Structures are given as C-alpha cells and as structure tokens.
Amino acid sequence: MGRGPSERMERRTDARNRRAQFALDFMVSYGMVILAIAIALFIIYELGAFNPQLSPGYCNAAPSFSCGGLALSTNGVFTVLISQSLGGAITITGAACSTEVNGTGTGPKYGNVDIIGANAYYPSGGFTPKTVLTSTTSKKISLYCYSSSSNLPAKGSLGSTFVGYLWLNYTYTGLPSNYPIMQQVITFSTDYAAQGPSVTTSTSVSTTSLSSTSTSTTSTSSSTTTSSSSTSTTLPYAPPVLTLNPNSISQGGTSVVTAICASGDTCHAEAPLGTLVCSGTTTCTADVSPSSSTVYYANDLTIGVNSIGNTLTVTTAAPPVLTITPSVITTAQSATINAICTPSTDTCDIDYPALGTHLKSGTGNAMYVASGLSAGTYTYYANDLTSGVNSIGNTLKVTAVLALDSSNSVRASSANTVSMFLSTSNSPDVILVYGGVSTTNAITATLSDSSGLAWDLQMQGNGIASNYFWNAIAPSPLTNDKITLTFSANGVGNVGLIALAVSGANTISPFDSHSGLPTNVIGTTAGTSASVSISTSNANDMVVVLGGISSTPTSITGSNIIVAQTTGTPRPVAGGYNIVSTTLTSSQFGFHWTSSDTYFFFGDALRQTS
Prior knowledge:
The protein is mostly beta strands.
C-alpha cells in the first residue's frame, strides 16, 4: 500500500531537520574547540612566552593566582597584593623578583636565586617567612627586585619602566613540608614610583540559577550572576637602603657606609638616627671608624622615610702586653723590656718616656734592653700601632748601688779645732764623719761645714777619749766643702777627723733599723786589733766602721773591711766599709795594727735606695 502525499511530506521534513541538527552540533563542537585554543594562546601570550619584553603597565598571574595591585619604588622595592585559588592554604617561605630567568628556566637569574626568606632580600616589614595565604584572603608582599649580578636592588628613575617576574617558594596543604614548590606566579610590567598607588582589590562571588523550558523534549538551562566587593589599599613608601662594607671591623679599622634613597631625593646616612654622617642627592658615602659597635641608618628626607638600623660591629682589639724582667734593678744592672702585640702581623712599639714616643719597633713584638740608668722609676708602654690600642704603663725601678764616693781625713796635736776639705761626684750622698780628741775632760764638740749641711750626731762615746759620730745628707755634689771640728776648750789634746761620702744610700732613712745599731767598741786595755759586732735587718747594706787609736801605730789593715782612709800621728784615725748581700747576725768588722794600743770605734750600716 503506497504512502499518501502527507506522509511523504513529513518524511522529507524530518530529514531536513536531522541534517540541520547535525550541522548545528558540528558547528558548536568545533567552535568550542577553537575558542579553547584561542583562550589558551591568549593566556600563553599574556604570560610572555612569545614575547619576554612585555609592554608596560600590567600584571599577569599564573593559573590559580592573581595580583590585585602592584608598585615599584625607585629603590627597587616591589610591592604586590597577591591571592590564590588552589582550594587550600599555602605557606610561603620565600619570594624573589628578577628581570630574567636562570639558564634552566626554573628560577630567577639575579638576586634571591634560591628563593629563600633571608632578610637581605626584603625591606623591613615587607615579607615574613612562613606567611600563610588561603583561598579567601589576599596578602601584601614587599621584596627587592634585581636586574644584574651586582646583588644590589634594581633602582630606577621615576616614570621609567621595569619588566620582571615574581617567584614564590611555598608548600601546599596536603603535601609533605619537604616537598616545596618553586613557581613563577606573576609576570608584570610597571613604572617606578616613589609611593605605591592606591589599588582596588576585588572579591567575586558567582551565583547560578536554574530555569526550565519545554519543547518536544524538556531541557534545563542555567544562568550565572556575579557580585563583586572592592577594597582600596595604598601601597607603602619604599624605605631607603643602608649598606656597610664591611659590616664588621676591628677597633681602629674602617668601613664604608652608603645610604641609597629614591632618585633625586635628599639622602642622609645617620648614626644615631638624626646625627649626620654624610649627605647627598639620591646617595651618599662615608668612611667611618667608630671605637665601638654603632647602628647606622639611611634617611630619605624628601619623603620622610628611614631604613631600619644596620649595625657595624667593632671588635675590640686585644691590648698589647708589656713585660719588664726584672722589674727592679740597680744602676749597675740591666732589664729586658718586651712588647707583644696580637695579631703577630701588627706593628708593635715600645714607647718611652711617654705614649707615642717610639723607643723600639717590631712586627708582632719589640724588645729593648735598658741599662746604664740612673736611680729612679721609668715607665714604658706597649703600643699596637696597627690596631690603635696600647697597654697601661709598666714601671722599671732602678736603685742606686751603695758605693764609696769619696773620703778624707786630718789630724792635729794640742788643738781645739781642725778642718779638712771634701769633694764628691754623685748626689745625693750620705756624709759620715768621726771626730775624736785624746781627753776625757768635759768638753763640747761642734761640727760645721762651708756648704751648710745639717749635721746629726748619730752617737757619742767616752772612755779613753771623747768620740763623736755625725751624719748629713748632701743633696748635690760637694766641691771643696770645708768640714770643721771645734771643741769648747783650747789645747785639749790630739785631734783626729775622718769623713766618708756614700752614694746609693736611702737618703730618707739612711740607716738600717736594727735595734743594735749604731754600736761601738771601747778598748781601755791596749791591743793590736779591734772589731765591732754588726747585726742588720736588711740585705745589701753597707757596713761602716769609723774610729781612732790613742798612740801611733806603724800600720793599720782591715779585717772584713775595705780601708777607705787612715792617718798616722799624732791622732791616728781609720775608716772602712764593706757591702754585704745578706742580713747579718753578730758579724765582726774592724781593724788591726802592729803596736799595742787602746782604741774606740763606731759601727753602723747604711740602707740601699729602695
């Protein structure tokens, strides 16, 4: 049975409809593919894959990241508002900004190439390592951008263009912390500015609504509406930069301080803040040599912003050491003076008589032998000329050696006065005088001299005669000093006078303090020898024996005595001395002669200069 006209017409209509639907489906499918390819190519192009020299004035983020505003200061401080939509929190451990990618294409070529959180790559308050960035927040990050291997921030003039890349080093929620991600997240181009612009960040919320339509089949379509909220944020002034080269010196060393401010700004280096070190336009440099650790600041006076403090550490040099061996000597001895400086490469001096007066110099140490010095105290210094430090003064004490400077004697018969002359070479000297007269009558003896010395009667003794022992201090050398002994009666008997001048004695307290001194010995029974018993409290004393004999001996020789002076008739006198090195206990010192006679001798001990 054949089909009618209406049936044939319906079949033709269905065929046309199917061909039209097929054509529509084909066009929609391939159109979507072409649109996806176009979008991908646009994204790749915008990220700079085709043209790394990007045009100015924009910020393109990698997928799942976005930047809400950016600014670059003339000091090279880049500030950006960044957000992410990875679906979880990320922890940022470092950020880096560079004009070029390294050779492997994995990170920055200049500056913070390891993308770490070290303070050197961030201005104060710019970035805190382990910053957490969630999908619902934005973070403002500031860091230095770099454009060369000098490792200095990429400075620029106001209005000039900078093209660069931003990398983040972060860990992502759900991944182990030892699997950090280093990713180039932003490509940007911007102009240098002294202060970041006011930027607006937007948060978009999409809402999807459903509606139904009916045809031969039922289909559901959706429509999406998006609402946005905006927040305005002003990016900060970029702080100036203060560098120290080096940032640690030894005391006396020098460091170069450099302050770097925005181009054209008045720039100060200050220490402390407010106290000028140097001034300039854009930058200033100064050599500094503080004596202790000091904090320096860069201060941009034009925009009123200063850097955080940068400390120059000053290591105090170890003071040199000065030794004197031995530290106490006599005028006849020497001492070794040694200066030791640290480090051993320093120029080391011995200074005398004042700091800065160089006596001997060496590398690391200096040595000098001091000899032939007069009695007194000498102060020496060790001076490290390289480090600029010195030791405190160290003293060498020089004491005079006890010695007989000069002597003289005289005698007379039946006289009430007798005189002699005495000259000395040294000063000060202790002058010792013995005077005796062969009478035991009550008389008064007086000693005087032409130099006006102050005479002290040390001891008086009677027995076979009248005997006197005087001492005086001669502060300066004597020249023909006339010493006169005068008695209160005329023609009293045979007179003898003898004097010894001793140098190197303690002129403040000349005599040994032992309770048995001074002492004497009286020989009322004639004999051919006599001695005094000496005990002392000090070592290195000079024992002195002075006295007279009643008759005329043929000779006088010493027993433990160096004979200093003797005279013969009519009143023989004798004087002698001995320098001992130890303290004495009842040691015998005296004279002997050939003809038996009576005698009288004084004994005492002089102290060395202390």
